[in-house]
Amino acid sequence: MKTALTSSSIIKKSLQMLACSACLLMPLASQAERLKDLTSVQGVRQNQLIGYGLVVGLDGSGDQTTQTPFTVQSVISMMQQMGINLPQGTNLQLKNVAAVMVTSSLPAFAQPGQTLDITVSSMGNAKSLRGGTLLMTPLKGADGQIYGMAQGNVVVGGAGAAANGSKAQINHLSVGRISAGATVERAVATTLGQGDVIFLELKESDFSTASRVVDAVNARFGPQTAAAQDGRVIRVRAPASNDERVSFLGALESINVTPAQVSAKVIMNARTGSVVMNQAVTLDACAVSHGNLSVTINTQPVISQPAPFSGGQTVVAQQSQIEISKEPGKVILLKNSTSLADVVKALNSIGATPQDLLAILQAMKASGSLRAELEII
pLDDT tens digits, residue range 130-185? Predict the structure, then answer.
């Protein structure tokens, strides 16, 4: 009896291991994502701010005033506003001042008194902004109104080293940041709290994903709560009270939705030759010739006959293969494959340049063999 129990436990463990192995071999389903990662609430957005200012206190690394006259004009204008009038024809030789552009983003629901991080970028030919101080600079929005004021010490990251008279510099010294360097002076009005309807916008237009979002929202909050207007915008009924609306939006953003599979897309960097595919992209039959490179993709029938008197049937299957050749005489043959990834890998192995790869992919796309969106960056 003890032996039987031991054998039974061994069989049970073996079945469990087989089940686990089968689960690992099965293709994984699309992972559910939070609604807040797939959509944004219409009207809840950032607003870009920009301003022009001066950085002073540089250690001789400022703008060369002979080549950047706007820096001198800015200094003279600032001094006149402070009640200092320079004699006519004064030639200022400034080495510790740099004209800069100040940029930042005003987040949604920002209120006066809050602080923002800002980026300070040189406009002229300043060698470095390290150690400089940004003077009070108004930050304006697209409507020309002032929404913030910036000022503070510029922090420029970078490592410098000198040995045997030679210098090495890492990082870009003409751009710096000021943490909490701007103060919000004006709030941007929002329409989020008006009416009993909000609109969700998918970050990527997709009719299938929009339909799944509607189903998930209605399943969570009841029928007729959400309705899709098109492949991007979803209309959602929300409470009219601000307090209830905030709680409703918090629960809405936490809903898990499994997005639809995106369309096939191939992205290529023409400078580096990097190729990225968002899913398994296959190729149809084609023949491409580019200089001393040639790529041929075709299918051949493979006939499988049963043994005599076995009662089986003859089966005809299509076998795909890719042939890539480069003069003189270097040939790569890939059987049972029409994957673009295999083609790119083989082309790289025989020394194809990024320009060669770009020309071949564009030819495949034009011929209809590459059934995916091709984006060149």
Answer: 999 999 999 999 999 999 999 999 999 865 555 555 666 667 889 999 999 999 99
Nearest to 50 by CA among 112, 118, 109: 118
Q: Across the beta sheet with 226-228, what order do the strands follow?
A: 39-41, 197-202, 233-237, 226-228
pLDDT 10s digits, 59-78 = 999 998 778 889 988 998 99
Neighbours of 169 (CB within 10 A): 12
Peptide bond into 328 cis (omega under 30): yes
pTM: 0.69
Nearest partner of 214 among 260, 264, 246, judged by Cα:
260
Distance CA 218, CA 220 (A): 5
Domain assignments of the chain as residue spans, ordered by start: 47-82+92-158+167-184, 197-257, 265-305+315-376
Query: How far is 173 from 98, CA to CA, in rounded Å?
Result: 12
